Amino acid sequence: MLCIAMLVSTYVGKPVINFLTPRLIEKRLSGPASGIAKTVLSTCITSPITSAITSALFSDPDDFASVYVSSLAITMSMAMFVSFFIVGPLVKLAFHNRISPAGGLRALQLMEQLAPSISRFLGM
Q: pLDDT (tens digit, 9 = 90+) per residue, 27-45?
């Protein structure tokens, strides 16, 4: 499920969100309202696609519609809740309090140097 969500977010969600955000959100909203609107937009785009894929994979063809509707209701609301109240604050807390710009740059350079070794270790 996480892999499907990441692929949908990367290849479908991000391009659509990057296209719609300047047109719908940035000109009209600012501050916390902008953050809430971006979270809602992201969830409204990626959650239906992710739910459709997982429902198609894990249900019978005859039960697809009922499984899709029930999973979408749960997935969409939980995705908004987790994104806005748990993941967002944790990432902001870690970034603002623990990662300095110089430290972040050093970490990226280290990952760039170790990427071939890590990919060989993981069999890629």
A: 888 888 888 888 888 888 8
The three-state secondary structure class of 83 is: helix
- pTM exceeds 0.85, yes or no: no
What contacts 50, CB < 8 A, 6 or more positions away?
1, 4, 5, 8, 75
Q: What are phi and psi of 18, to 5 degrees?
A: -65, -30
16-30 exposure pattern, b = at least 16 Cβ within 10 A, e = fewer: ebeeebeeebeeeee
Would you say 75 and 51 are in contact if contact means Cβ atoms under 8 Å apart?
yes
Query: What is the C-alpha to C-alpha distance for residues 28 and 13, in angstroms, rounded to an integer?
Result: 21
